[in-house]
Amino acid sequence: MAVFTPLGDAQVATFLERFDVGAFKALKGVAGGTENSTFFVTTDQRELVLTLFEQGEHEELPFFVELMDYLDEHRIPVPGPVHDREGTALQSLAGKPALLFPRMPGSHPESPNLAQCRALGDALGRLHLVSQHFPGQRPNPRDLHWLQAVHHKVLGYLSPDDQTLMKNQVDEFEAAFAEAGELPCGALHGDLFRDNTLFEGDTLGGIIDLYNGCTGDLLFDVAIVINDWATDDDGRLDAKRHDAVLDAYLARRPFTQAERALWPAMLRMTALRYWLSRLLVVYVDPPAHDLTPHDPERFRTILKARIDHGALPLPEVTTR
Ligand SMILES: Nc1ncnc2c1ncn2[C@@H]1O[C@H](COP(=O)(O)OP(=O)(O)O)[C@@H](O)[C@H]1O
Ligand SMILES: N[C@@H](CCOP(=O)(O)O)C(=O)O
User: Is residue 226 exposed (0-12), middle (13-18) or buried (19+ Cβ within 10 Å)?
Assistant: First the structure.
C-alpha cells in the first residue's frame, strides 16, 4: 500500500483551486510506492499525481523541486512539479508537505526490451549532459563515505564469509577511488531502477521518483542502471541489454579515461550500496509502515557475480 494519509474528495477539490489545472473530478490512491502517499487526480482538463511526503528529510524537498524543475526545463522526461498561481510548487496538505505533478504515461517495464534499454540509456545520457550545469548541491548520501561509515552496522548480522566480503570490498573501493582521480560530476537520479520509469511501448513516458536525487559522480547513476536493467536472475550481466543501454548513453556522453578505469569497481560499489541499504532496512532501521522490505540477497548475488565475472567490455563510442 502507499496511501499512509487518506484524503477526501472535497479536501483535494479545495486544494486544486490554487492551481490552473481545472476543476476536480476524481481521486484514486496509488497502490505502488513505498515511502510517500501517492494519488492519481483527474480534473476536467488533465491527469495529475498528488504526492504527500510522509518521511525523509523534508528540508531537502526544495532541492528536489529545483532539480525536477531544471530537468523538465531541459526537456528531460521527468514530471516537472505544477506551480500554483503565485509560482510556488511546494505546498502543505493534511499537515504534510505536498507536490502536484503531471501524470506521465505508461507502466514500469519488468523485463525491458532492447529498444526500451536504448531509450533509457539515451535519456540518462541527456540527463547527465545537462545535469553537469545544475546549480544545486546535495552531496550523494549513498557514496563511498556512507559505505565506509555505516557498513559496520550490519556486519553482526552476516555470516563470517559475508563480513569478509563486505569489508574487503569497501577497502578495495577506497583504493580504486583514490587511484582513479577526478570523475565528471553533476546531478544524479540516484535510484534509476525499472520501477522508477514509465514506458508506453518502446517510448519512455517518464522518469519518476527523484527523491534520491543528489549531486556526485555521474558514473554512480550509470552503474545503478546497469545493475538493475541489464542483470539476469543469476546476477550476471546480460550483454545485449548492457550494450543497448551503454551504446545509447555513451553516444550522448562518452566516459572519461578515469571513468573507464573505475567502471568495474563502480558496478560492485553500487551493488554493495543496495545490499547494505536493504540490510539496514531489514535489521537496523525497519520502516514505520508495514511494508515488505526489498530483498538484500539480490544485491549480494549481483556483487558476487561482478567479482567472479568482472565487467563486460564497454561498447565503442559513436557520438551523436
Ligand atoms: N508523475 C507520475 N506519473 C505517473 N505515475 C506516477 C507519477 N508519480 C508516481 N507515479 C506512480 O505512483 C507510484 C509511486 O510513486 P513513487 O514516487 O515511486 O512513490 P514512493 O516514493 O512512495 O516509492 C509509482 O510507482 C507510479 O506508478
Ligand atoms: N530503490 C531502492 C530503495 C531506495 O534506496 P534508499 O537507500 O533510499 O533506501 C531499493 O531498491 O532498495
Answer: buried
| The domains spanning 9-102 and 114-309 adopt the same CATH topology | no
Give the residue from 172, 169, 195 showing the smallest Cα distance to 271.
Answer: 169
pLDDT tens-digit series, residues 22-68: 999 999 999 876 789 999 999 999 999 999 998 777 899 999 999 99
Task: Write the DSSP symbol of residue 46.
Answer: -
- Residue 288's contacts (CB-CB under 8 Å, 6 or more residues apart) are 55
Amino acid found at 227: N
In the chain, where the domains are located: 9-102, 114-309
Around ligand 2, the residues with Cβ closer than 6 Å are: 142, 191, 193, 212, 274, 277-278, 294
How far, in Å, CA of 143 to CA of 97, rounded?
A: 27
Task: For 262-301, write each residue's pLDDT tens digit.
Answer: 999 999 999 999 999 999 999 998 877 667 889 999 999 9
Q: In this structure, what C-alpha cell is assigned to residue 274? A: 543496495
CATH topology classification for 9-102 = Phosphorylase Kinase; domain 1 (3.30.200)
Does CATH number 3.20.10.10 belong to domain 114-309?
no
Instruction: Give the mean pLDDT of 97-101.
Output: 97
99 C-alpha vs ligand 1 centroid, how far in Å?
A: 12
Choose the residue to mutate in 221, 277, 292 for probing ligand 2, maximizing ligand atoms within 8 Å of C-beta.
Answer: 277
pTM metric for this prediction: 0.97
The answer to whether residues 293 and 278 touch, using CB atoms and an 8 Å cutoff, is yes
